[in-house]
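Re: weekly structure request thread

Next one in the queue (242 aa):
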Amino acid sequence: MEENAADNLVTYITRIPVAEEASIAFIRHWKNLGVAFDGDTIWMKGFSQEQINSPSLRQIPYVELYEQKGGLLFKKGKLVPERKIPGGLLWNPVQRAFPVLPGDLNHNYFGIQQKLTMRIVPAPDEQAATALLTDKMIAKDYVTRSAAVRLQPLRWCLIGDKAFFSGTPLLSIPGVAYWEYQGNYLPAGYHFEFPTLAKHIYRRLSPGGESKILWFSDSSYLLLPVKNLVPLSVSSARLSIQ
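Done, posted below.
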């Protein structure tokens, strides 16, 4: 009992490249683990002393082991912190983040939707917004009164009676804010129910990377060709929005 209590005083965290996610199968059965995604990095926490020293963990390529003290991360056994833990991470149980999927689902997901429905769900933390979907007439009124320097960082396109803007800083007008995750634009405050499937979805729907995927809160989506996103300017808004 004393040994277990001592273990609980140390929080162990690992950092694993997303490219090596298949290797997490070696430790997926450790139900005590939590998983979070941050760009091209997978963070995992909740390890026991026995697990952190296990050969199963060490056979994952490029895994980095840390001890967390406050908000700082120390390489295991080192006295000087190497980095801070990223803020706003969304933690999920390992078996939710990496579900066991039927046979060929990893390779041909959208051909067998009856086996697993992909959904987006409310998330406890919002990510920084990098895109905006708004009414096109409201957008035209704002853009045509804006200075050119304000518009330069943005790209945009029309989607029916809506205007979609990508880039920051976002325009200061009403609309639905979005954040980007592995080629998918998700409404702010939402994430995939199974985040690990995100890149498989993107590769399936946009195999050549020619489109982004715009998701809506009801889990429907729209393919958004990258070529349609053009630089924003006063003249482009005047000519395109009638």
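Helices lie at 2-7, 49-52, 55-58, 94-97, 136-143, 148-151, 198-205, 234-240. The longest helix spans residues 136-143.
Next request, please.
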